[in-house]
């Protein structure tokens, strides 16, 4: 007879007493939650004792529960060590979930629209507590994920784990690698800054080279001929919907296949041509509960801790200026994991190297298990495949290096040097010219000529001589007119150079030394060069820095400086127009009665021809509060 | 490393795992409590960089008219590095003193009137004692009146001195129309005060209801309608925002505004800063700058223009054209600076290169030049961008001016 009109806990209390009823109730709930382990089972498991109940309750969660139904109930001891897996597969899975969680948090503050996206980035950085940390983690996790998945593939190759019966597992893994790459790549665009716009523009333009469908694919991807509102929305949807959906599907297939076939053993642990992964001897079994479970909980904690530490002290996701389709930044590259394609593109035809080559490479990888059908997984028997693997790694590395902007992209030396000094913060680096502390930006005109030494003279004497020289030969005037064409007001244009105040402004001195050093490295392209830095006050707390390079023009053909037999660059001489004179010394007239002019070499006071002086300048503004930190600082 | 990651005992792993989680939570908590300061620092840094970007935009887009240092240029564009724009009123103290004194005068006069009414009340005449008291009080009030008048005189004198010392600025447009107000008879004193009240700062002058930031941003976005009528020799303040069909994105507008507002010196503005300004803003809305109807503009129908010239015997002057070209219409701001074809060599290029093109078959150089000026969008020379040259020169130039410029270009 129940106490209440229906059977209840109170009946248990009446029957067994309060304490017993409660304990049994808890035991019952725990067993339901864990799908088979009661309190005593758990206690035994975590104490490392053997299970006292039979049949072994630690296998029940795998059989009855949802969460563990796809995890093996035990592993072979030989695959639980660092070797052979290096935990790369586990890490890849970890990053899938890590990226999902941090990504969803970032989605709360993000709108995929060119008008708003960049502002959202600033909001995440300036008005969302932990927003910066979350963004850094998501970005760093993405970079790690690409690297880890790629290494996972190489590990599988090296241990020969793609061989029968795991051919299809390898294939789905390759799909996951490609999806991972595109996931990372599609996320690249979302901040809508210069870095993302141009990296993605370069990446997406590779698709253009595909014959017949290239333009259509590109149009479909970008939503318009240029990346804009539609392109951003499409990349966003790819990033948060399509690609993750594909990733989860193939992740499921991949892991299912891994479990079905078992984790492949280290090659030397089984006989040639045998696959014993599913036949684990009793003494080699490492049970998921409790051993692997506690291992994984520990790794989860450790990995997350390490990423947290990295994102607090060592890594911040880059954010450059707002995307501007009109301004192509110097030295644009694709994301690092696509650099190898960019490098390959420099080898020649866009279609062959940009489309055919990657397709053949990936196709070759996909077919690998079907091409390499030798039964042995032992290293000694697989010299050819291991050689190809190391070749693949070397070629990818070399191609990636070739993909860098500094490789075989013709930019004139002066542009390169000034860019080197002044580039905006990107990838934790910043042009040294921006790192001069504000109070060391002392207004005035300084020249690198001073750095080159002033033997026997004080710096001031040297500068006085340099002033006299450049004013006499017109180089100073050329600099001033260059400055004025760049909207430096006549009032503010400097009257003369002054010596660098090394005591008050050591960093300024250091920057000028670096400037001189960079100029010195280009004796052929920039003969008789001097550089100048002109610092002017612009507003309260705002300075303007003009970087000037002045050199003797050299003959350049096909992007190459022409040199004479002695290896000296061929200097272009200045000319001027003078009236042509006839034999009697009278000006010659053309048919319209105008004096006829001819270009003659311009001579200096001693009657020697003078070189045509070239000048280049670029400028930047620095605000007191901008805090451009030293590289790595 | 291997040992570390493969702790052999379960409790060791549990302990290490818990330690890692707790460590991570402590780190995140530590970051969280510092977030406020970090976010503030980020805002400061971002504002600094916005100003830098704004400076870059200003230098390339605005400095041509508003001056590299923001002092404006005569009859072309007002200064932005300009105390008047930021609410510095050089005679504000005097205006306020006069307003206060005027209010006191009204109050005192009213008090005196009340006392006089009481004094002359026939039905209920005051007692002798009260009469004396009233008279004494009136004397006192009249003395106060005198005092207030003296204050006004003093403030007016001070203002006059101030205006004299600022005569350079006044000449450049601080207090526009001051010369028409100056001679107003003293009876209209209020009008003078109203004038100074309204013209004290740029925002009151243009009757702007919002704040300065809004004023600057709005002007950048939409330009200043009507300003082409005021800035006689330019096209006026054009819209710059993509919202208004021009080139700048909203974030660039905000960067530019941040730069312009960074000129603000707050309480530290001085009269010297006023004097440094080359040109002050002009009033737009009240129509107080009547433009005499001039000769009709040339328009943009090339054949009609050439016919008109022939019929009316209009002949261009090369010398006048040169001045119009480089100064009044500002052609040299772009031509000769890379963004547009050079002025030098115009004739030869037109004759030898342009007229050789099939679409200009049968053109004369003169015809080509007239078309290039009045309809710049019809043909863009390779290597230059379209849409850069204003398309309204035809409506801004008289026939004579157009003919002068063409004559000048024929010699180039």
Architecture overview:
The complex is a heterodimer of chains A (633) and B (412). Chain A has 633 residues and is an alpha+beta fold. Chain A folds into three domains: 9-63, no CATH class; 83-266 and 327-403, Cytochrome Bc1 Complex, Chain C (Up-down Bundle); 413-570 and 612-626, no CATH class. Helix content of chain A is 48%, strand content 9%. Chain A has 19 helices and ten strands. Chain A has helices spanning 9-16, 18-33, 39-47, 60-64, 88-107, 117-127, 131-158, 167-189, 194-207, 214-222, 229-261, 288-314, 339-345, 350-371, 383-403, 413-422, 459-472, 475-485, 506-520; strands at residues 74-76, 285-287, 444-447, 530-539, 542-552, 556-557, 560-561, 575-579, 597-601, 613-623. The N and C termini of chain A lie far apart (77 Å). The mean pLDDT of chain A is 89. Chain B is an all-alpha fold and 412 residues long. Chain B has a domain at 302-410: Cytochrome Bc1 Complex, Chain D, domain 2, CATH 1.10.760. Chain B contains 18 helices and no strands. The model of chain B is unreliable at 287-293 (pLDDT under 50). Chains A and B meet through helix 6, helix 12 and strand 10 of A and helix 2 and helix 11 of B.
What's the SSE blueprint?
The complex is a heterodimer of chains A (633) and B (412).
Chain A: H1 9-16, H2 18-33, H3 39-47, H4 60-64, E1 74-76, H5 88-107, H6 117-127, H7 131-158, H8 167-189, H9 194-207, H10 214-222, H11 229-261, E2 285-287, H12 288-314, H13 339-345, H14 350-371, H15 383-403, H16 413-422, E3 444-447, H17 459-472, H18 475-485, H19 506-520, E4 530-539, E5 542-552, E6 556-557, E7 560-561, E8 575-579, E9 597-601, E10 613-623
Antiparallel strand pairs in A: 1-2, 3-4, 4-5, 5-10, 6-7, 8-9
Helix pairs in contact in A: 1-2, 5-7, 7-8, 7-12, 8-9, 8-11, 8-14, 13-14, 13-15, 16-19
Chain B: H1 2-5, H2 10-66, H3 92-119, H4 128-165, H5 167-171, H6 178-182, H7 189-199, H8 202-205, H9 212-222, H10 227-230, H11 250-261, H12 271-276, H13 302-312, H14 318-328, H15 346-354, H16 365-374, H17 393-396, H18 399-410
